[in-house]
Amino acid sequence: MYAIRLALSSLLLACSVAHAYPDKPIKLTVPFPAGSQTDLVARLVAERLGAELKGTVVVENKPGASGTIAAASVAKAAADGYSLLMTSAALQAMNYSLLKQMPYAAADFAPIGKVASTGMALMVKADSPVKTVDDLVRRAKAQPGKLSAGYGSPGAQIALAVLKHDAKMEVLDVPYKGIPNAVTDMLGGQIDFTFVDFGNAIAQSKGGNARALGVTPHEGSRLMEGVPALAATFPNYSIASWYGVMAPADTPKSVLATLDAALQKSMSGPEVAAKMASIGVEPALMNAAEFGPYIDREIQSWAKMIEIAQIPKQ
């Protein structure tokens, strides 16, 4: 009888702990600077997820080292559901083929869900003499290595490398900690062009500061109407990215299930779609069971793309 009472007490305690989650603020770590698209998506997720959980989700930016600083910090954090990562194709797929030394592995994380997809725009400042993709390629080929191109994320680095490969052109690559930093230097004339996430690209276009020459998704994007796909010039060009949420491996299954359900519910509906459009992304919900295998496929897909682009590991 005592054993039964003890078992029931343990079960009730476990249930009370599970129902109590969350009982303190959840930290959502962002691998890129404030103002980056990853940051904007994270703040939308934090707002909606916190409301759904009847708790608080706090965003913390930890930029640098291609996002690995943030990812490694979450991988090593306590697996209790209070340290989450706003992840992306860059962190969860590209970096494995881009970096020689990785401070984290795929097995260090548990998937919670995918929330959005997006692309990038190839941009020049508004008063640039470059008007089209063909114009850019002609100028680059006429002066090999003279034009400068910035990239502020692994995705932007790959987009640039694939463009150089497809166009058979040489430019000077300039790395940045984040896309907003690259945009600032482009507008200031320090670099000639850069790849910009849709959120920042839409803002810069509407503000009349920069001009989009082309977009990376193969079919173009309704978020950047009137801007041709780079595939119109280079038929095989196709690059799209995505965002999702991860937790440290070994996070209790009950906590993961709570987060999965809350994320799916909070990030759906027309209101969310409208807010996403304003920052340059589109809804692309995927639950935890779907997200894990999807990431595995993405790792292989980006590896092939990086090999084609001949980007050496750094």
From TrEMBL:
Q: Which UniProt keywords apply?
A: Signal
| Alphabetical list of Pfam families matching this protein | TctC
Sorted alphabetically, which InterPro entries does this protein's record hold? BUG, Bug_dom1
- Signal sequence region: 1-20
> What PANTHER family does the record tag this protein with?
BLR1237 PROTEIN, TRICARBOXYLATE-BINDING PROTEIN
Family membership noted in the UniProt record = Belongs to the UPF0065 (bug) family.
What is the name listed in the Swiss-Prot or TrEMBL entry for this protein? Tripartite tricarboxylate transporter substrate binding protein
- Species of origin: Parapusillimonas granuli
